[in-house]
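Moderator note: this is an archived Q&A kept for reference. The question asked for a predicted structure of one protein chain; the sequence and the answer are reproduced below.
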Amino acid sequence: MKQIFDQYIHPFTDDFGETRYAVAEWDSFHSQYVAPLDARTRKLTGCSAEFAKTPKALGGYKTKRQALRRARYLYGDANDKI
C-alpha cells in the first residue's frame, strides 16, 4: 500500500538543512510538479492545483509519515483504503 503513494513523495532539503517531504505528482510533459489543493483551498481560491518547478517551492512536511498521510488523502480513493 505504501509503495502506491511513494511516487508522490519528494524529499528535499530546506534552507535550514532539514529534510522535508513535498507531496506532488511529477508532470514530465510540462517538467513541473503538480500538487492538487484540498477542497477548502479550492473553494477559497478557485484553483484546483499548485504548480512548481522544484518540490522545495511547494513547501513540505517534516516527516515522511505526514507526507504519506497527505498523499493518501490527495491521491487515494475508496478502493485504496484497506
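Archived answer notes: The radius of gyration is 13 Å.
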